[in-house]
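General statements about sequence and structure are easier to judge against a single worked case. For one protein, we set the task of working out the structure tokens from the amino acid sequence alone. This step matters because it turns folding into a mapping between discrete strings. The amino acid sequence and the backbone structure tokens for this protein are reproduced below.
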Amino acid sequence: MNINERLEAAKAALVEAKDGEDADALQAAIDEFKAAEAAKKSADEADQLIKSLGTVKENAPMEDTIKTLGEFAAKNLDLAPVREGAAKSVGTNYGFKAYTDPQVSQTVYSYSTDVADQGLRDLAVRQLFGQEQISVGNALNYFILGAKEDNSAPSPKGVNEAAAKPQFHIVEGTVTATLQKIAGWFYETDELLEDNAYLASALNNRGLYELDAAVEAYLLSTLQSVSGIGTDTYAHNGDVDPDTILDAIMAIKSDTRFNADAIIINPTDYAKLRELKTASGSNEYVGGGCFYGPHGNGPAAVQPGIWGLNTVVTPNITAGTVLVGAFKQGATVVTKAGEGARIEVFRGDHDDAIYNRVTVVVEERIALATRYPKAFVKITEAAS
């Protein structure tokens, strides 16, 4: 069953479960629909990323089954010139600095095709934000709306016949978001040039995964440094609590009229919230124990959302810091039109040939435009 078929089946099951009286069956249908919808979204994003690369090898067909950038590189980069010594590189033809790291990749073994690759850690922060592209230049100037200034309060307001209309002014500020290149490179043995299946795995598992993790860390760091985002604290030497998070959700609603749509939290802080128990004699897990849902009702969930919001649990945010926000409306990830993640595979110098290795470069240009700083609240531990 492909992704589209799975989504349609999940829709049908959800409709059927809704008409029934089995609460557990309805919850299971909801969970499956959300999972199928997320899988479809990921596949669509992969398709767009692949299309942004263009075709590198002349007349190379873009197969519908290609879902990752690594597969694209393996199927569409013409590695023959490098393998035969006629060229040093294929790909985006970017240069690179001389290496200073003597390490080389591990030996390439033959693997059974019956064993599936292990899934990588979910990197979901980027998908929380809105997305936009710029076609000219490498920076974006955008406006931030400030507080309303009144010449006569309140305004606008009801106006009587022949009366003057009240004036008001919206304060605007201009901010520049400049594209930042996130990049890195690593060595691989030149057996990769003979083993396209392993090339795809190496590029995805070590190259693009690490690039995506770096982009996630960059977005989190950039957002937390934005001037004007909301702040809140919890007690010194204490733990963040659900009430503080709810206060942040309501602060965003009051300040922007936006509904918060996501929470980003470190695994250590999330675990403490999941371990909260009632103060009564029952000593039950507030959010459900390891086998049951809240207060012993329904099935257990490993990472349920806090206050019903999409909750991203990631070590890329520091323990003791929680970000609450209306991410889709509050900020956008900015990229260059026609660009995406770039891959280059090449021999760098004479020593690369001696050591039977090639260099793989991964990079992407990206920026974060935070148009509504008050759409985010950063919660941290109070100072002593």
